C-alpha cells in the first residue's frame, strides 16, 4: 500500500523503521491504553513477524522528516471486513496526523479495495472514541468491564464501525 496525503505517506513497514517504531511502542505513556511498552527486541520481532511478514500494519510517515510517526493496524478480519487501529508517537499527538492518515486509509479501502466494513475497538473512551466518530464510525456496542487497563482495573471496550453504504 502507498497513499500520500498533504503531510503524510502511508506505506508498508520495512526493517529500517525499527528505531521509529520503537519510539512509539517503547514509550510507556503512548502504550498506556494498549499493553506494556515494548523492548527494542520485542519491537524488532513484532515489526518483522506481524508488520512485514503478515502485512498486519502500515507505517504513517511524516513527509517532511521521513520519520515513522504512526503505527496503523489494518488487517482483514473476515472477508471484506477490516480492523483498523492506530498508535502515534506522542510528540505528534493532537495535530491531526492520526485523522489524516486513517481517513486516507478508509477512503482508499472503500474506493479502491471495495471492502464492506471497517471496525475499530478501544478502551479509551475519549481520544480514541473521538477519532472514531470523526472518521464517520458509528457505535456498534460497548462490552462492559471486558478487559483490564494498565493498572489492572476492569474497563469497558468500545466498538465502532463504518460500512461502505454509510459513505454514500
How does the SSE layout of this entry go?
Elements: E1 2-4, E2 8-12, H1 18-25, H2 40-53, E3 57-62, E4 68-78, E5 81-88, H3 97-112, E6 117-122, H4 127-134, E7 138-148, E8 154-163
Parallel strand pairs: 5-6
Antiparallel strand pairs: 1-2, 2-3, 3-4, 4-5, 6-8, 7-8
Could you list some keywords that capture this structure?
eight-stranded mixed beta sheet; 4 helices; 8 strands; alpha+beta; about 170 residues; globular
Structure description:
This protein is α+β, with helices and mostly antiparallel strands and 168 residues long. It has helices at residues 18-25, 40-53, 97-112, 127-134; strands at residues 2-4, 8-12, 57-62, 68-78, 81-88, 117-122, 138-148, 154-163. The chain has an eight-stranded mixed sheet with strand order 1-2-3-4-5-6-8-7, sandwiched between helices. A hairpin with a 5-residue loop joins strand 7 and strand 8. It is globular. The two termini are 24 Å apart.
Question: What is the gist of this entry?
Answer:
This protein is α+β, with helices and mostly antiparallel strands and 168 residues long. Helix content is 27%, strand content 36%. The chain is globular, with a radius of gyration of 15 Å.
Order of helices and strands: EEHHEEEHEHEE
- Order of strands, main sheet, comes to 1-2-3-4-5-6-8-7
How much of the sequence lies in strands comes to 35-45%
Mean pLDDT equals 94
Instruction: State the share of residues found in helices, binned by percent.
Output: 25-40%
Amino acid at each position: 500500500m502507498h497513499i500520500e496525503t498533504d503531510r503524510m505517506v502511508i506505506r508498508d513497514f520495512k526493517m529500517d523503521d525499527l528505531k521509529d517504531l520503537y519510539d512509539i511502542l517503547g514509550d510507556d505513556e503512548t502504550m498506556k491504553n494498549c499493553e506494556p511498552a515494548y523492548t527494542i527486541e520485542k519491537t524488532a520481532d513484532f515489526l518483522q513477524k506481524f508488520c512485514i511478514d503478515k502485512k498486519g500494519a502500515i507505517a504513517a510517515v511524516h513527509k517532511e522528516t521521513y520519520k515513522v510517526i504512526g503505527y496503523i493496524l489494518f488487517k482483514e478480519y473476515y472477508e471484506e471486513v477490516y480492523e483498523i487501529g492506530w498508535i502515534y508517537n506522542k510528540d505528534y499527538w493532537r495535530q491531526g496526523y492520526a485523522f489524516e492518515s486513517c481517513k486516507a486509509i478508509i477512503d482508499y479501502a472503500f474506493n479502491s479495495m471495495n471492502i464492506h466494513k471497517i471496525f475499530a475497538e478501544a478502551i479509551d473512551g475519549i481520544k480514541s472514541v473521538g477519532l472514531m466518530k470523526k472518521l464517520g464510525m458509528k457505535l456498534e456496542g460497548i462490552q462492559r468491564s471486558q478487559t483490564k487497563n494498565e493498572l489492572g482495573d476492569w474497563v469497558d471496550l468500545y466498538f465502532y464501525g463504518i460500512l461502505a453504504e454509510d459513505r454514500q
